Amino acid sequence: MSEPNGRTRRAVLAGVGATGLAALAGCASSAGGSDTPTGESEYGGWMRAVSNYEGETADRTGDSEVRVTVAPEGDYTYAPAAVAVSPGTTVVWEWTGGPTSHDVAEADGGYASDLHTSEDATFSHTFEEAGVSKYYCTPHRNLGMKGVVEVRGGDGGEG
Predict the structure, then answer these.
(1) Under a CB-based contact definition with an 8 Å cutoff, are residues 89 and 151 in contact?
(2) Were both Cys, which of 38, 90, 98, 122 would link to 55 (CB 3.0–4.6 Å)?
(3) pTM reported for the whole predicted model
């Protein structure tokens, strides 16, 4: 079927489809303008199911001590979920209290706290070497209660 200006309906639809695909391709290629990592690619997918991780690592390099909140507001999370520190930094996990017990356990077994519920509980670990330390809450790992400490600098680390 021809339109009054000589174009067929099929040609018009093909043109609209091609324009839409080109627009989508442009959006996809321009979305990569930032080097912000995502839970899928950063940390080997470890942060994929972490509800409060949106691809950003809190930069606390240069601080001698960093605090991470365990289960803020009763959530099954650590805050910040991912933190970058310098070698020699002590990370202190602080419990906020609540009806559910939580712990901090490194995925490779390098450190682990006891299970705590009280808001005055803390656990600390000093990170000496560059690398990535993945940790989780033992009873809530499957709920995405996981975190990362990225130690930057020193031998083999990022500057």
Answers:
(1) yes
(2) 38
(3) 0.72
Tokens for 138, please give them. 């033992």
Residue 135: alpha-carbon gap to chain centroid: 12
Q: Are residues 16 and 72 in the same domain?
A: no
Is 102 annotated in a binding site? The answer is: yes
Instruction: Check whether residue 130 and residue 64 sit in a common domain.
Output: yes
137 marked ligand binding residue: yes
pLDDT 10s digits, 107-134: 999 999 999 998 989 999 999 999 999 9
CA distance 100 to 120: 14
Beta carbons within 8 Å of 112's beta carbon, 6+ residues apart: 103, 104, 105, 106
Q: Which of 74, 70, 91 lies closest to 138 in space, CA to CA?
A: 70
Taking CA atoms, 90 is separated from 18, 33, 37, 127, 141, in Å, by 55, 34, 24, 6, 23
Helix H or strand E encompassing 85: strand 82-85
Task: Please tell me whether 116 is known to bind a ligand.
Answer: no
Residue 125 labeled ligand binder: no
